[in-house]
Amino acid sequence: MKTKQFIKDNKERFLKELFELLKIQSVSADSAYNKEVDKAADFLVKQFNLLKLDNVEKIKTEGHPIVYAEKILDKDFPTILVYGHYDVQPADPYELWESPPFEPIIKNKKIYARGACDDKGQMYMHLKAYETLNELDDVSFNIKFMIEGEEECGSDNLEKFVINNKEKLKADVIVISDTSIVSNYTPSITIGLRGLSYMEVELIGPNRDLHSGTYGGAVDNPINVLCKIIGSLKDKNGIVQIPGFYDKVKEYSDGDRYEMNKVPFDLDDFKSHIDINEVFGEKGFSTLERIGIRPTIDVNGIWGGYTNEGSKTVLPSKAFAKISMRLVSNQISSEITKLFKKHVQNLCPKSCKIIVKEHHGGEPVIVNTNTLGYKAAYFAFKKVWGKEPVPTFDGGSIPIVALFKNELKLDSILMGFGLDEDAIHSPNESFGLFNFFKGIETITVFYKNFAKQND
Ligand code: BES
Ligand code: MN
Ligand code: MN
Fold first, then answer.
1. Residue range 75-98, pLDDT digits in tens
2. Structural domains in the chain?
């Protein structure tokens, strides 16, 4: 009760602080924003100091800094490690935002800004949850915060940091709020994340753009070739055509699949929210299964030739595409990357050359539900939301989670509070005020539950 009251009494200030963070344009993928990314790290340093945490550090890496802070009250208390990210996706196309992405506003009971949900808003809930318990003198656990600035571009430097700082990061549980719940009426805990292999393909034809009349029909066109290759990557049943792609994919029993599909999910809502008439995916699987437990391949961007106003009659010299694959257990990102490379190289005709570049990857995750951490999260949702949370398999990726498991030997509790309609990575990203405040409350209960269960 006291917790609720404290959150209520401090609502305005919590939002004001979050807005300060949301105004910082910490786009990690684009070096033009490096200074802003740094500013976001400084903001967190300031906030951790205000929380009177110890060893507050802005740790330099080869890329963007990691912000670390801790409070070790008693070495016999259980230790909770909070992970989150302060970097955001690029905000473009700007013209599709109804209000500017880095000028947060509240509309329809939601906060609108790039990063409102992914992940500034969600990460910041942990600072405020800790503050709440600390002010109420209700902290009987140790806490470590590790907030990074490179999640949206692969977490490469965080991986090195984790491998080299196992002692510093020693904890009993990791908790992350960077995923979504089914709806505000159906709380859920994420127990699966997909992995990722992200590739870039360059098709090279003639050594210059050619007149499409004098050469057209006699010289192969790299855009046509690229389209043909891309068009052949999935068949009409949505099955990926890369040899070996499915070899290691974990198959689920009928019972498991039945459980998965019990999650309240309305296909008509799903379609209407994104304005499509029909879904498409691997034959034989439901939409929930296609997102949660099946791998896929998609083009994320494609370009080449003339795309400005009017027309220009050219055969392009080059064509490009960014292609990503979402992976599931027990696929291994580096193996899938290799299979992809080999496959598209084989598909390239003699008329063109092909270059396949690798971007970042990440491994899929399945969370062990038979742990103290999971139970603490489960009962926190049950208490605060008045409903038992359902386990869900999310389609997104958080690459560092698999590394946490392998290097720190710890399961991560994925207690996110976002909604699909929050439009993360899209224009008009939002985060509900209800979710922000309810999330803070749920996290305080999680911390307390976890501290108790380890007694
Ligand atoms: N928070 C997301 C991942 C996510 C979103 C998980 C929704 C579950 C539900 C994260 O910030 C993200 O966007 N990850 C990237 C991976 C990265 C390597 C670019 C992704 O999934 O595309
Ligand atoms: Mn995120
Ligand atoms: Mn993201």
1. 999 999 999 999 999 999 999 999
2. 2-193+364-453 (3.40.630.10), 195-249+295-362 (3.30.70.360)
How many angstroms does the Cα of residue 425 sit away from the middle of ligand 1? 9
Given ligand 1 and candidates 125, 152, 328, 417, which is best to mutate, with the most ligand atoms within 8 Å of its CB?
A: 152
Element (H, E) at 134: helix 120-135
Task: Report pLDDT digits (tens) over 348-362.
Answer: 999 999 999 999 899
Q: Confidence class of residue 314 from pLDDT cuts 50, 70 and 90?
A: very high
Torsion of CA 290, 293, 297, 298, to 10 degrees: 50
Is the pTM of the predicted complex or chain greater than 0.85?
yes
The CB of 362 under 6 Å from ligand 1? The reply is: yes
Pick the atom of ligand 1 nearest to 324's CA.
22
Question: Nearest 5°: CA angle at 435, between 431 and 437?
Answer: 115
Distance 30 CA to ligand 3 centre (A): 15
Report which of 66, 180, 81 is spatially closest to residue 121, judged by C-alpha positions: 180
Strands 210-211 and 314-315 come out as antiparallel
